[in-house]
Design a protein that fits this description.
- By secondary structure, the chain is mainly β.
- The protein is built from one helix and 29 strands.
- It has one helix at about 1-15; strands at about 20, 25-35, 40, 55-60, 60-70, 70-75, 80-90, 90-100, 105-110, 115-120, 120-125, 130-135, 135, 155, 160, 165-175, 180-185, 195, 195-205, 210-215, 220-225, 235-240, 245-255, 260-270, 280-285, 290-295, 300, 305-310, 315-325.
- β8 and β9 (about 105-110) form a beta hairpin.
Length: about 325
């Protein structure tokens, strides 16, 4: 009886020391001091959210596990210092960002179901790490190239007590001077006004896991966008929806026609209405077959791509000639 009570007590005092949070689950490692031969883990309701087969006793050689309601009875060879490791579906995390007046902040959003956890070491990982539970795969937004381990973004967060519910905390900040973008990309159009998207381009000051970004400028909310995975030092672009202030004006004139094709002169004008510089990104796709004469543009099998910078209040006129089948 005394031995049984000792085993139960050991089950009660196990607490989380290392917590690694993924988008759909967490890996938890709890330090233990095991008695010889056998130990009872009193997981309670936490066992209901533990991925089957993920329990491990690290530091001893396991021989048998017996599952009972709310508890697991371990038999093993060895004793002393050990670690209980398991995958827990009751804790999940994600990364999101704010870009406010040129300051980029990375935030962690941690959601815990069940009793609080004491994390002496807390790590957030973003990237694809599937866990199969009841035939459901828990995955991140996208695989993230260029980071480790093996394509995952790793962020070390300050140690803390994780409370039940959702906790949001900033963990990285950097001041940026982003380039303001205006973009049209799509099929060749003859309409008099082409729609433009507004956005930003900046060099990643630290590794950027995929996540939602919210932009604020001059105290105004500009929109949200999904930030693609971007290793530190590489260029990230985000677009925040249609721009209502800038107008891309177009005039199309037929200059020649034959039995099988027609030639057009296309003039596109952008007047930058803003008191700061912008960069215009143009990309059009033409129906096949076509021939294009557009000095300065990058010609592609499907069309072209062009990038030009405009000073504050500057207007830019672009002209190209395209030949299309009738």
């Amino acid at each position: 009886m005394r031995k049984a009570l000792s085993l139960l007590f050991l089950g009660l005092i196990a607490w989380a020391q290392e917590v690694t949070v993924y988008p759909g689950f967490a890996e938890i490692k709890e330090p233990l001091r095991l008695p010889p031969s056998a130990w009872v883990y009193l997981g309670g309701e936490r066992l209901e959210k533990t991925v089957p087969g993920s329990l491990r006793l690290l530091g001893v050689e396991e021989e048998e596990r017996l599952y009972r309601p709310g508890a697991v009875f371990f038999r093993y060879r060895g004793e002393g210092e050990a670690v209980l490791r398991y995958l827990y579906l009751g804790l999940r995390g994600e990364v999101f960002y704010t870009l406010e007046e040129g300051r980029l902040t990375a935030w962690a959003r941690l959601t815990l179901e069940g009793e609080p956890l004491e994390a002496k070491r807390l790590t957030l990982l973003a990237g694809e790490a599937p866990v199969l539970e009841r035939a459901v795969a828990y995955k991140a937004l996208a695989e993230s190239p260029g980071e480790n381990p093996f394509g995952l973004f790793r962020y070390e967060l300050p140690p803390r007590r994780l409370e039940t519910g959702t906790t949001e905390l900033p963990f990285l900040r950097a001041d940026l001077k982003p380039t303001r973008l205006l973009r049209y990309q799509g099929p060749f159009r003859t309409a008099g006004v082409l729609p433009l998207e507004r956005g930003y381009r900046f060099q990643a000051p630290f590794p950027l896991a995929p996540g939602r970004l919210e932009a604020v400028e001059d105290g105004l909310f500009l929109g949200q966008a999904l930030l693609p995975p971007t290793p530190e030092g590489e260029v990230a672009e985000v677009f925040l929806g249609r721009d209502a202030g800038a107008r891309l004006l177009r005039r199309v004139e037929e200059v020649a026609q034959g039995e099988k094709e027609r030639a057009y002169r296309v003039e596109t004008v952008l007047e930058n209405p803003y008191p700061y510089p912008v960069t215009l990104l143009l990309s059009e796709v033409f129906p096949q077959p076509f021939r294009l004469d557009f000095p300065g543009a990058t010609l592609l099998p499907e069309g072209y791509r062009l990038e030009v910078s405009l000073r504050a209040k500057e207007a830019r006129r672009l002209v190209y000639r395209v030949v299309l089948a009738r």
